[in-house]
Write a structure and sequence with these properties.
This protein is α/β, with parallel strands linked by helices. A hairpin with a 2-residue loop joins strand 9 and strand 10. The strands form two sheets. The chain has a six-stranded mixed beta sheet, sandwiched between helices. 42% of the residues lie in helices and 24% in strands. The protein contains ten helices and ten strands. The protein has a domain of 158 residues: 3-Layer(aba) Sandwich (Rossmann fold), CATH 3.40.50. The N and C termini lie far apart (64 Å). The structure holds adenosine-5'-triphosphate and magnesium ion. The site of magnesium ion has 4 residues, from helix 1.
């Protein structure tokens, strides 16, 4: 089966310093690709390139075999994107925001109203729909972003730490939604610094360190070869002297 999205030798340098180097992966219909890496590993940089918001320094991103920059507007119509930080129009209410997104995506009014109402209801936001987003909690904002990303039934979902701030119930419901979307032939890119989160949702995994791929494969393969995971992901954690760091930080806080 041909991939929905494919990344080839993708590289991004900021002021000459590599943030992502020679990255390769593909996501096929029905797959949820976990993108696991520590803070600063290059996850959001990859996400922004995948969403067409940041130009790669080199390499390419193919959507159904075509470079996304050949028809960026057409590509964006088929993609749902949840950024790491929501820069929502906080003066709008949740309902107005979804209405705006639906309108920009050309969804007929009756359809977008019905879809928004259903999703708001299931994610416990319906009674808050006429409240300004500025008054939403982090988890409520995260849920509105997810609804907006799903409004146009995208072929590809790009999620940058989508569960951060979600409570147990919302996270569980969203996890099930992602599973169902994958079963229905969608491709999902899911990045997170937390192995336990990725493990529960994803069918495939890419582990990156300092912008480079250090392990990849199906989730079962990678979990089975615990050694690969330890070498690629846990090694760094184990080398950290957290107690020493904490006491030096306390020293700094208390220094006069
Ligand atoms: N706009 C920018 N200008 C310069 N350097 C940047 C910029 N954005 C990111 N970087 C650098 O690129 C590297 C990767 O950052 P990125 O945000 O992709 O990491 P991340 O894996 O998403 O981290 P986190 O888990 O903290 O969200 C970091 O070293 C960061 O300092
Ligand atoms: Mg990030």
């Amino acid at each position: 089966m041909a991939p929905i999205i494919e990344v080839k030798s993708l590289t991004k340098n900021y002021a000459g310093l590599p943030a992502v180097s020679g990255m390769n992966f593909a996501i096929r219909a029905g797959e949820v690709l976990g993108y696991l890496g520590h803070n600063g590993a290059g996850k959001s940089t990859t996400v922004k390139m995948l969403a067409g918001l940041l130009e790669p320094t080199s390499g390419e991103i193919l959507f159904r075999g075509r470079n996304i920059h050949e028809d960026l507007a057409g590509f964006k119509r088929r993609v749902g994107y949840v950024p790491e930080e929501s820069h929502l129009y906080s003066f709008l209410t949740g309902w107005e925001y979804l209405d705006l997104v639906g309108t920009l995506r050309g969804i007929p009014a009756a359809v977008r109203d019905a879809k928004s109402a259903l999703m708001l209801e299931e994610l416990s936001l319906f009674r808050h729909r006429h409240t300004a987003i500025a008054a939403y909690s982090k988890g409520m904002r995260q849920r509105i972003m997810l609804i907006a990303a799903l409004l146009d039934d995208p072929d590809l979902l790009i999620l940058d730490e989508p569960f951060s701030g979600l409570d147990v119930v919302s996270a569980l419901v969203m996890r099930r939604v992602l599973n169902l979307l994958a079963e229905n032939g969608k491709a999902i890119f899911f990045c997170s610094p937390v192995l336990e989160t990725v493990e529960k949702v994803c069918t495939h995994l890419v582990v990156l360190r300092q912008g480079q791929l250090v392990a990849s494969g199906s989730m079962t393969e990678i979990l089975a070869s615990k050694l690969a995971l330890e070498e690629s992901f846990f090694q760094l954690t184990e080398q950290v002297d957290a107690d020493g760091m904490a006491s030096r930080i306390l020293g700094a806080i208390q220094s006069k």
